[in-house]
Specification:
Largest sheet: 5 strands, mixed
Structural class: alpha/beta
Bound molecules: zinc ion
Shape: elongated
Order of helices and strands: EEHEEEHHHHEEEHEEHH
Radius of gyration: 21 Å
Number of helices: 8
Distance between the termini: 48 Å
Low-confidence stretches: 1-18, 20-27, 39-44
Length: 272
């Protein structure tokens, strides 16, 4: 069932589950926060779900030392779920479709992923529980709905040829926002647009980045600056200043000035 070495498995319900013991380039591991950040609990880190994973780990490996466990919900177009072991730490990435799943289902998912990771037999009852949930009409409908909105023509996804927008976003989020910014939908534009390099579409909670940045000749600081600018729009929503709309407020500009390669980035954008 599992192709050795590829790390690809097929979940019981026919959904793809990626299990790997080695780091994968995309999406990159969660970046570490700068020391200046408060020890805040990241909203996207699911502590209660991490506890479920720890419980299932203990059941599966009663005498093995307990690795630190980190669980996050990510936006996937399907019920994709991944787990990886990296430098003795367990990182699980669950589709945000599973965010409201009942505890027994989360236990089942944790069990299945850990069993696959450590090559142990999967418990039948757990397997069945997961299968039933995955097949339930509510989930199906939600999956379909998300696929139609996220997979629509105007949504091309965050994965480019050279840059992965989610990876760049996560790194910037850690570096400048202590990881506290909720990640919106991120997508490359359809064309190599030069007039609109990037914009934040509040109605669809989507940041669109022009494909002109997805080439090797485009330095990382350029796309970082562009994404950072759009992320500041999330942090500083448009305000009414009397009758004027304040899009780039004083606070916005002060934050923007914190970007170290601002001058280089602006110069690069001008040359496009
Ligand atoms: Zn702007």
């Amino acid at each position: 069932m599992d192709a050795p070495g590829s790390g690809l498995f097929f979940a019981p319900a026919g959904m793809r589950v990626l299990v790997s013991a080695s780091p994968k380039p995309h999406p990159a591991p969660w970046p570490l926060l700068p020391a200046s950040c408060p020890p805040a609990i990241l909203p996207s880190v699911a502590l209660d779900v991490a506890a479920i994973f720890a419980e299932e780990y203990r059941a599966l490996r009663p005498r093995a030392p307990m690795p630190p466990v980190e669980v996050r919900f990510r936006r996937f177009t399907s019920l994709n779920t991944t787990i990886r072991l990296r430098e003795g730490r367990l990182f699980a990435s669950l589709s945000d479709l599973l965010e409201g799943a009942p505890d027994p289902v989360l236990h089942a998912i944790a069990h299945i992923l850990l069993a696959k990771l450590y090559r142990r037999p999967i418990d039948r009852a757990q397997n069945l529980r997961y299968k039933r949930f995955a097949a339930s009409a509510a989930v199906q409908r939600q999956t379909e709905l998300i696929r139609t909105t996220r997979g629509s023509k105007r949504y091309y996804g965050p994965e480019g040829r050279y840059y992965h927008l989610e990876e760049v976003f996560d790194a910037l989020n850690a570096r400048f926002f202590c990881g506290l910014l909720g990640r919106p939908n991120l997508t490359w534009s359809e064309h190599h647009a030069k007039r609109s390099l990037g914009h934040y579409d509040a109605a669809h909670n989507t940041i669109v980045v022009s494909r002109v940045f997805d080439r090797p000749s485009s330095p990382r600081y350029a796309i970082e600056y562009l994404l950072y600018h759009e992320m500041l729009h999330l942090k500083h929503p448009v305000r009414m200043n009397g009758l004027r709309r304040s899009v780039h407020s004083r606070e916005f500009k002060a934050d923007e000035a914190r970007f170290p390669q601002l001058a280089e980035a602006l110069a690069f954008l001008k040359r496009l």
